[in-house]
Specification:
The protein is an alpha/beta fold and 397 residues long. The chain folds into two domains: 2-32 and 73-106 and 248-325, FAD/NAD(P)-binding domain (3-Layer(bba) Sandwich); 114-246 and 385-396, FAD/NAD(P)-binding domain, CATH 3.50.50.100. Helices cover 35% and strands 24% of the residues. The chain contains twelve helices and 23 strands. The chain has helices at 10-20, 42-46, 58-61, 114-117, 124-141, 155-174, 199-211, 252-256, 296-315, 350-365, 370-378, 385-396, and strands at 2-6, 26-31, 35-37, 55-57, 68-72, 75-79, 84-87, 92-94, 97-100, 104-106, 147-151, 183-187, 214-217, 222-226, 229-232, 235-238, 241-244, 248-250, 276-278, 281-283, 329-332, 338-342, 345-349. The longest helix has 20 residues, at 155-174. It is globular and about 70 Å long. The structure holds flavin-adenine dinucleotide. Residues 6-12, 30-33, 39-40, 42, 74-75, 101-103, 121-122, 155-156, 251, 253, 285-287, 294-297, 299 line the site of flavin-adenine dinucleotide.
Length: 397
C-alpha cells in the first residue's frame, strides 16, 4: 500500500508513528516544515522560555523508523482521479491512501492594517520578531510601552496576557531599565473571556487576569490598525505592540482545490464515518468537520482512529466508525494557576496547573519516546537569556 501523509503536525506525525509500527508498511510524510510544532507551548516561548518545548525536528521523531520517508515540500494541488499530488517543488507524488492534516492559518478577518501592524505567535519567525521588538523597544527607549495590546481572549490570548507581565519585568531588569507604568490590554469581541468554555470559568479567569494587572476589555471590536495603534469600537488606543491571537482559517490548500472537496459552513472538510473526504483520501485534525476539531487531542484521536482502520483493512477485518470524543481543556493563567474543564468537571488554581503540566508531558510522549519527551518537557524551565544577550551585544557593537 502506498501511503502518503501530508502535514508534519499532530495529526500527520501521530498517524505516521502509529502506522510505522508495522515494518511492512512504507510511508511518505510530506511537510512544508522540518519541525513538528507543539503549539500549546508557543505562548511560553513568546515570553522567554526555551524554544525546545515547541519545535521538535521531524528527523528526531522518526530516527528509529526506516519505513518513514520524510519529504520537505509544500503540497499545492491534488488530482483525485489520477491519485496524484503536486508539490511547490514541481514534484508529483502518487498515493493509494492519502492522509491530509494541514492545520490552520492565521486570518485577520479583513481588518485593515492588522497584517502589517500586529505581531503573531504562530511560528518561530513571528515569535522571534515579537521578542526582538519587546526587547529592543525597551532597551532603546529606556522605558516600557504605555499599552501592550493583545487581541483575542481565547486560550492563546489569555495564556499570553497572563505570562507577558513577568517577561516584561525580566527584560527591564536585564537592561537595567526602570519600569514605568504600563498596562496589558486584553481585547475580546465576545462578552466574556474564553467564550467556548463555561460562564463560571470565564468569570474566574477574568478575576484572575484582573488580579494579575491585565485590563480585560470585553464586547470590543478592533476595527483597524496603524503604525500608532488600533481603533477599538470607535476609539483610538495608542500602542506599538499589538499582538493578534484571534482568527484561524482552514488551510488555503483546500480552497485552492475546491472542486476536490466538500466544505462545511466553517470551511472545514466534510468526512464520512471513516474520515474519508473521498475514496482513498482521509482528512483529519483541524481540517476535518468533526465535533471537537481545533484541538491537538482531537487530531491525535483522529490519527489513532484512521491508523487502526488502515491496519484492519490490511488484515481484512471490518473497519470501525468514527466517534468524536470530547477532550479536556486546560488553560494556564500565569504561574501555577490554570483552569481545567472536562464535561461537568471544573478545577481552578494549582490543581489545574499540575494537570496542565501532566497534559504537556503526555502531549510530548504522544510523539516521542519517554526519555526524549521528558527532556523536552523539562526544557520549559530553561529561560532563553541568550537571545537577550545577543541583542545587547548587537547594540553595544
Ligand atoms: C498558539 C496555539 C496554541 C494552541 N494551544 C492548544 C492547546 O493548549 N491545547 C490543544 O488541544 N490545542 C491547542 N491548539 C490547537 C492545536 O495545536 C491544533 O488543534 C493541532 O495542531 C491540529 O493538528 P493538525 O495535525 O490538524 O495541524 P497542525 O498540527 O497545525 O499540523 C499541520 C502541519 O501541516 C504542515 N502543512 C501545512 N500546509 C502544508 C502543505 N500545503 N504542504 C505540506 N505541509 C503543510 C504544517 O507545517 C504543519 O506541520 C493551539 C493552536 C495554536 C495556534
Amino acid at each position: 500500500m502506498n501511503i502518503v501523509i501530508v502535514g508534519g503536525g499532530f495529526g500527520g506525525v501521530k498517524t505516521a508513528l502509529e502506522l510505522a509500527k508495522n515494518k511492512d508498511v512504507n510511508i511518505k510524510l510530506i511537510s512544508d516544515s522540518d519541525d513538528f510544532c507543539y503549539y500549546p507551548a508557543l505562548y511560553s516561548v513568546a515570553t522567554g522560555h526555551s524554544h525546545l518545548t515547541s519545535w521538535v525536528p521531524l528527523r528526531e521523531i522518526f530516527q528509529n523508523y526506516n519505513n518513514v520517508e520524510l519529504i520537505k515540500d509544500t503540497i499545492t494541488s491534488i488530482d483525485k482521479a489520477t491519485k496524484n499530488l503536486t508539490g511547490q517543488s514541481g514534484k508529483k507524488y502518487d498515493y493509494t491512501k492519502l492522509v491530509l492534516s494541514l492545520g490552520t492559518v492565521t486570518t485577520y478577518f479583513g481588518i485593515e492594517g492588522l497584517d502589517s501592524y500586529s505581531f503573531g505567535i504562530k511560528s518561530v519567525e513571528e515569535i522571534d520578531q515579537l521578542k526582538n521588538h519587546l526587547q529592543t523597544s525597551i532597551a532603546d527607549s529606556q522605558t516600557t510601552e504605555r499599552h501592550y495590546v493583545i487581541i483575542g481572549a481565547g486560550p492563546t490570548g489569555v495564556e499570553l496576557a497572563a505570562a507577558l507581565g513577568s517577561y516584561l519585568n525580566r527584560i527591564c531588569q536585564h537592561y537595567n531599565v526602570k519600569k514605568a507604568d504600563y498596562s496589558i490590554e486584553l481585547i475580546e469581541a465576545a462578552p466574556r473571556v474564553l467564550p467556548r468554555m463555561s460562564e463560571k470559568t470565564s468569570r474566574r479567569v477574568t478575576r484572575r487576569l484582573t488580579k494579575l494587572g491585565i485590563n480585560v476589555q470585553l464586547d470590543k471590536k478592533v476595527e483597524s490598525a496603524s503604525v500608532d495603534g488600533i481603533m477599538v469600537s470607535g476609539k483610538p488606543l495608542k500602542s506599538h505592540t499589538v499582538i493578534w491571537t484571534s482568527g484561524v482559517a482552514s488551510n488555503p490548500f483546500y480552497k485552492n482545490n475546491a472542486d476536490q472537496f466538500e466544505f462545511d459552513e466553517r470551511g472545514r472538510i466534510k468526512v464520512d464515518s471513516q474520515m474519508r473526504s473521498s475514496d482513498g483520501v482521509y482528512v483529519i485534525g483541524d481540517n476535518a468537520s468533526t465535533q471537537y476539531s481545533g484541538l491537538a487531542q482531537t487530531a491525535l484521536h483522529d490519527a489513532v482512529f484512521i491508523a487502526k482502520n488502515f491496519k484492519r483493512q490490511l488484515s481484512g477485518a471490518a473497519v470501525d466508525k468514527y466517534k468524536a470524543v470530547m477532550p479536556p481543556v486546560v488553560v494556564p493563567v500565569g504561574e501555577s494557576w490554570a483552569v481545567f474543564e472536562w464535561h461537568k468537571l471544573r478545577l481552578y488554581g494549582w490543581p489545574a496547573a499540575i494537570l496542565r503540566k501532566l497534559a504537556d508531558f503526555m502531549g510530548y510522549h504522544d510523539i516521542l519516546p519517554i526519555g526524549q519527551a521528558l527532556g523536552v518537557w523539562r526544557a520549559e524551565k530553561i529561560m532563553e537569556d541568550d537571545f537577550v544577550e545577543a541583542n545587547r551585544k548587537k547594540r553595544n557593537r
